[in-house]
Specification:
single chain; two-stranded antiparallel sheet; mainly alpha; about 65% helix
Length: about 180
């Protein structure tokens, strides 16, 4: 398994909680972890095929309500060990990629009004995401007695505090550009 294919770890991590289809994995990525990780069907299905080939996941068959066969994936013992080794590994890539910041960096080619609008759009998205994170926080606080939920909770807290810092930055950036 290529060390730079983090989608493999995302898939193994999600499957360590529940057996899922590729579609279910995409839904989980788009729902619970979208604040810090992205994944497309174009990366999920090839990764599942490779993980199966390597013996880290296995296929289970099931039927959906329409009678079609669904392919459900389950993590294997080998997959669990790969996931554990990755979690124990102290190295981590924490890349920050924000197109809004790149636009601001090169903002001198346009007007201040354009830069201000880009900040406004960024702020609107952050506020919307922050509301979702706060709902997640309120819901998970009701179930912190389950060990895995403590770890989910920590990522939610990180997201909330980070997004609050982004909003603070938006205010400062507007003042600088005014």
């Amino acid at each position: 398994m290529a060390k730079d294919r983090k989608i493999d770890m995302v898939i193994l991590g999600l499957l360590s909680h529940d057996d899922m289809t590729g579609y279910d994995i995409k839904k989980q990525i788009d729902g619970s972890i979208r604040f810090f990780w992205k994944g497309s069907f174009g990366s999920i299905y090839p990764a599942l095929a490779e993980l199966e080939k390597q013996g880290s996941v296995r296929r289970l068959k099931g039927n959906d309500s329409g009678g079609r066969e669904k392919i459900i994936y389950s993590i294997t013992g080998q997959g669990k060990e790969i996931l554990r080794a990755w979690v124990r590994d102290e190295k981590a890539s924490n890349d920050l990629k924000y197109e809004t910041l790149m636009k601001l960096f090169f903002g001198g080619v346009e007007s201040k009004e354009t830069a201000l609008r880009n900040i406004e759009v960024f702020e609107e998205q952050i506020k919307a995401d922050l509301k979702v994170l706060q709902v997640y926080k309120a819901n998970i606080e009701k179930a912190l007695d389950e060990e895995d939920h403590v770890y989910f909770y920590l990522t939610i807290l990180f997201g909330i505090e980070t997004y609050e810092a982004y909003l603070k930055w938006c205010n400062k950036a507007r003042k600088v550009l005014a």
